[in-house]
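Duplicate of #3305? Posting structure anyway:
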């Protein structure tokens, strides 16, 4: 049995993770922590913590997990640079899986986009479109940001130089090297990501649709099982799935 604490336990994702862990077996839920609940006693009892709270709390949680010497899986998105640095510092002491998206399909999409960007090169214009439910707080999604980072990495440019977040007014013709990123917020959409490469006379579109939160919940549990006992460091879901470095 792996002893698990879920942080953000009353939220959309926290609830899904707890349900999946209870029905999967092999998990002892020793903590279901939400805003205002004591964290330390749950951390002490745990082998691993899954975080689906909010980005502003993840750095503090990473520091507390490092202090307690417990493995951590971070699912929150939208971290500020300073929060990201604190998470990385905590990873000197504990193993952390940090992933903007735990679905198997999206992690395969990361891999496929890397391949597509390498083959298609600068002749094809990349645009990323994501759609999420009306309750989502950050935009663009962490997944869209990661997809854009992958394209930028393959082109050898810093993302912030190439990124073009939405267009309005009179932006003029598309600049060479732009990576367009667009966010739709509507209804109850669980998560849709499309990476489009448009070249001369042809368009390649790679789309992933998450149909339920179960895919993220099951992926985070897979990451939690994998990360227990790993050496300190930051790991991605591609590491968990064995897709890294491909
Ligand atoms: P939500 O608003 O439904 O739930 C967040 C929960 O965290 C709430 O119950 C809130 O009370 C709790 N919380 C906030 N601050 C806290 C704190 N300091 N301590 C303890 N609990 C705290 O949000 P959600 O839709 O479940 O999403 C949660 C996060 O996960 C978001 O950042 C979202 O973008 C991300 N997300 C990631 C994935 C993935 O695959 N990595 C998938 C879906 C959502």
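Output from current build:
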């Amino acid at each position: 049995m792996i002893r698990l604490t879920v942080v953000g336990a009353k939220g959309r994702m926290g609830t899904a993770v707890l349900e999946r862990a209870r029905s999967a077996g092999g998990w002892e839920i020793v903590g279901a922590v939400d805003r205002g609940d004591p964290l330390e006693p749950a951390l002490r009892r745990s082998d691993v913590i899954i975080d689906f709270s909010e980005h502003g709390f993840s750095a503090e949680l990473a520091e507390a997990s490092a202090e307690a010497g417990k493995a951590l899986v971070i699912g929150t998105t939208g971290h500020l640079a300073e929060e990201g640095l604190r998470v990385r510092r905590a990873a000197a002491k504990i193993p952390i899986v940090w992933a903007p998206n735990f679905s198997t399909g999206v992690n395969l999409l990361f891999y496929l986009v890397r391949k597509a960007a390498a083959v298609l090169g600068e002749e094809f214009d990349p645009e990323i479109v994501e759609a999420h439910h009306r309750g989502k707080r950050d935009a663009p999604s962490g997944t869209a940001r990661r997809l854009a980072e992958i394209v930028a990495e393959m082109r050898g440019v810093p993302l912030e130089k190439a990124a073009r977040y939405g267009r309005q007014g009179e932006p003029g013709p598309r600049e060479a090297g732009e990576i367009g990123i667009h966010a739709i917020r509507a209804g109850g959409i669980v998560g849709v990501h499309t990476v489009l490469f448009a070249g001369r006379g042809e368009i390649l579109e790679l789309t992933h649709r998450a149909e339920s939160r179960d895919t993220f919940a099951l992926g985070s549990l897979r990451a939690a099982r994998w990360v227990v006992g790993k050496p300190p460091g930051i790991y991605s879901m591609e590491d968990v799935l064995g897709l890294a470095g491909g």
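Confirmed duplicate; merging threads. The pocket of nicotinamide-adenine-dinucleotide is lined by residues 7-8, 10-14, 33-35, 52-55, 57, 75-78, 99-102, 216 (CB under 6 Å). The radius of gyration is 19 Å.
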